[in-house]
Design a protein that fits this description.
The structure is a single chain. The protein is mainly alpha-helical and 106 residues long. It contains 3 helices and no strands. The longest helix is centred in the middle third of the chain and has 47 residues. 0% of the residues are buried.
Length: 106
């Protein structure tokens, strides 16, 4: 049995609204805010990329399914392809006889 870890996803809002406690010699509030702004921008860019990749995976799965179905249909009827080729050759032969007449067979 496999166990999946629950992934906690922060949102841009969670990061933006995070409040840090300050002490006597705490961090500079301005530096923390600037750093959090950078994190928010990166997080947003990564989330957009993940969303795009998930959509791309779905599109490619659909395309693969369509190609697999198309391939199955083509490989399931090789006899039909042989008959089609025979019909084309027969028609070509009849056309040559009609165009060139008996000169072709002399």
């Amino acid at each position: 049995m496999t166990t999946q870890k629950k992934i906690s996803r922060l949102t841009q809002k969670d990061i933006l609204e995070k409040d840090f406690k300050t002490g006597l010699r705490g961090y500079s509030q301005e530096e923390v805010d600037q750093f959090l702004d950078l994190i928010i921008k990166d997080y947003d860019a990564f989330q957009n990329r993940v969303d795009w990749l998930e959509k791309e995976v779905e599109r490619l799965k659909k395309e693969a399914a369509t190609l697999t179905e198309h391939t199955k249909r083509q490989t399931s009827s090789p006899q039909q392809t042989g008959n089609t080729n025979y019909d084309i050759l027969r028609r070509l032969s009849n056309l040559e006889k009609h165009v060139f007449g008996s000169k072709l067979y002399e």
